[in-house]
Amino acid sequence: MPLDPIIAQALDELQTRRAGMTPVFELQQRGLAMKSPDERRAELMGKRIDVWTEAFGGAFRLFLSLPLMRDVERSFGSIFKLYGGLPPMSGGPAPVRGPSTSIAAGRGIVFAALVGGGVGVIGGQRVEVTSNVAQALMVALEREPIAETWRLARAALEARIEGREATAEERAQPVDCFGAPVIPAWAGLAA
Q: Is 46 left (phi over 0), alpha (psi -120 to 50) or beta?
């Protein structure tokens, strides 16, 4: 039975397009397919969407990957509304009323960003941040003033939404999603 001419034409166009595509292994060799879509987008815009911050007696990388961001949104709503509902940082204008983002949402953002960041430095030692480690850090966060939750949530959302300029260290040693992120010198990682 002969193919419908429209279907045959579509198959021909598809095969022509595939013939002109670069194989994935070749892209990987050139370092182009090794980055997540989030990291490629941020790189193209000249921005970073992760941030290192001092917390929990050390330094931790906060990064909301797309899947983790979607989890946060499923649980607490749009990250844009959450970001807009956070209280201002010290020195900012006083809010007319209290924050509209709940404490549970703030903690959910911090947990997701810690898991997404995946690494920290405590006492000069590198710490891999798994969901179990992040959960233990969240227990420690509950003993801190609520302002610390807001600070970490704001840092994670601000990096994700607005991006930040890469430091000289980061520009000198780019990161990909399969490699280790650049740990800043100020974090105090022992050699």
A: left
